[in-house]
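Researcher: Structure for this, please.
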Amino acid sequence: MLATKESQVWDELVQEEWDTPAPRKRTRTGSFVYEPKSPDIPEDRIPIICDFGEAIIGDGPFTGEVMPDLYRAPEIILYIPWTEKVDIWGMWLMVSHIKKMIYKNVRN
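Model: Predicted structure, token format:
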């Protein structure tokens, strides 16, 4: 995820999508996969990995579901108490997934 306080960056990205929609393809299941577009973030900004949509603040251990299914840690799947260590699991899965996609695209 990228962060910037300059709303013009996001406004331009939205306008570009309206003007020239991203290429997409339909999968066997009927859903769509879109080619991502990158916003023109000024070079003095750094990328930030964050998602506070399901954030739980406080001292653990915690219970219940959190994280997207694809990156969910075993503790969450098995409904056992979990701590912030599940974030390391999710990060590792995300990085390995991206690495596989990059390697696949380089081979093709």
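Researcher: Any notable elements?
Model: Residues 51-108 form one domain. Helices lie at 7-19, 74-77, 85-107.
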